[in-house]
Amino acid sequence: ATTVSTPLHEVVAGRRGVCQDFAHLQLACLRSIGLAARYVSGYVRSAERSAAAADPLVGADASHAWVSLWCGSRLGWVDLDPTNNMIPTDGHVVLAWGRDYGDVTPLRGVILGGGEQTIEVAVHARPTG
Fold first, then answer.
1. Rounded to the nearest 10 degrees, how much is the dihedral formed by the CA atoms of 102, 112, 117, 21?
2. What percentage of residues in the chain have a pLDDT greater than 90?
3. CA within 13 Å, CB half, 47
4. Sign (positive/negative) of CA torsion 90, 121, 102, 110?
5. How confident is the model at residue 32 (pLDDT cuts 50, 70, 90)?
6. What CA–CA distance (Å, rounded) separates 5 from 100?
7. Does the pLDDT at position 36 exceed 90?
8. Which of 20, 38, 83, 95 has the smallest C-beta neighbourhood within 10 Å, fewest atoms?
9. Cα 46 to Cα 105: distance, rounded to the nearest angstrom
10. Whether 68 contacts 76, CB under 8 Å
11. For residue 12, what are the contacts with CB-CB under 8 A and spacing of at least 6?
12. Pick from 29, 90, 85: which is nearest to 58 by CA?
């Protein structure tokens, strides 16, 4: 539906996107009213299910993004997953925090050479032991 460079106004106009779009949109909304929020990059354990459905959460078996909101010293950072409309559980595995996707990209670099390149990633995250 989108790419990492799709601007928010296109996400809103098209009414569709992926987890990073929903995280960026929620960050923009929270920050626009003066709240401190950060982008979270990680994974959702493959076996995690939503409370309302037997299907795996959106974002399982791939990288996932959500936000973390500063709620003062009493509560600290509270995570929010706008893609799955939930407060993340321990099934959300955090890899990195940043201002946005650009701070926490899983791969960054330059490839020199001919031809076209594509990367496809699949992740199966489950607890050990």
1. 10
2. 40
3. 4
4. positive
5. very high
6. 12
7. yes
8. 95
9. 21
10. no
11. 25
12. 85
Residue 34 reports pLDDT greater than 70: yes
SS (H, E, C) 30-71: HHHCCCCEEEEEEEECCCCECCCCCCECCCECCEEEEEEEEC
Scanning the structure block, which residue is given the tokens 């050479």? Answer: 113
Listed residue (79, 74, 72) closest to 23, CA to CA: 79
Six-digit token string for 99: 């201002």
Residue from 73, 71, 104, 82 nearest 28 by CA: 82
Contact in structure between 68 and 78 (CB atoms under 8 Å): yes
66 within 8 A of 41, measured Cβ to Cβ: no
82: left (phi over 0), alpha (psi -120 to 50) or beta: alpha
**C-alpha 79 chain-centroid distance:** 11
pLDDT > 60? residue 53: no
The two three-digit tokens of residue 64, written as one number: 């996932």
